[in-house]
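Predicting holo structure, zinc ion bound.
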Amino acid sequence: MSARLTQQRLKDLFDYNPETGGFTRKKTSSKCSYTNNSGYIEISVLGEKHAAHRLAFLYMVGSLPPIVTDHINGVKTDNRWVNLRLASKPENEFASGPKKNNKSGFKGVCFDKARGRWLATIGMNFRSKYIGRYKCLVDAVLARDLAAKKYHREFAFINAPLGRESLKGVCDCVNCRNW
Ligand SMILES: [Zn+2]
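Done. Tokens:
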């Protein structure tokens, strides 16, 4: 990030509209942004690319956010001021879905082959905290969701927002087979 770029410099060059989240270049009043490969809006300022949602913080607050910025509604291109908040890195991580290499398909739940149980864990302070081991995948998923609500609060990614009923058919343990 360029040391040359200050709030004043940014305001000299651009207008940011907190209501729409849009940036316009003052001289040409043309749209000046594009969406990058990660789905975020980028703007070229003084020959450097910047994420628009970070520039919004510089514009409004006077400094670039020291930590990761989060889009509250999950829409990466929605840079309205009300939609932006600061999130520390782990919280940004909490809000994301299961990783691609996760075989259970549920965040925080994996199969412990050695014990033949579903292992539920939750990320806390950069560590993985043990929740429990379960014969039933549904129990593991619900236990993990409960912990996520408790510890990650509004940043939580919930596997089953509609609860137990929505997990019908995902588990073939003895109890679930006749469910
Ligand atoms: Zn089950």
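The chain is about 25% helix and 25% strand.
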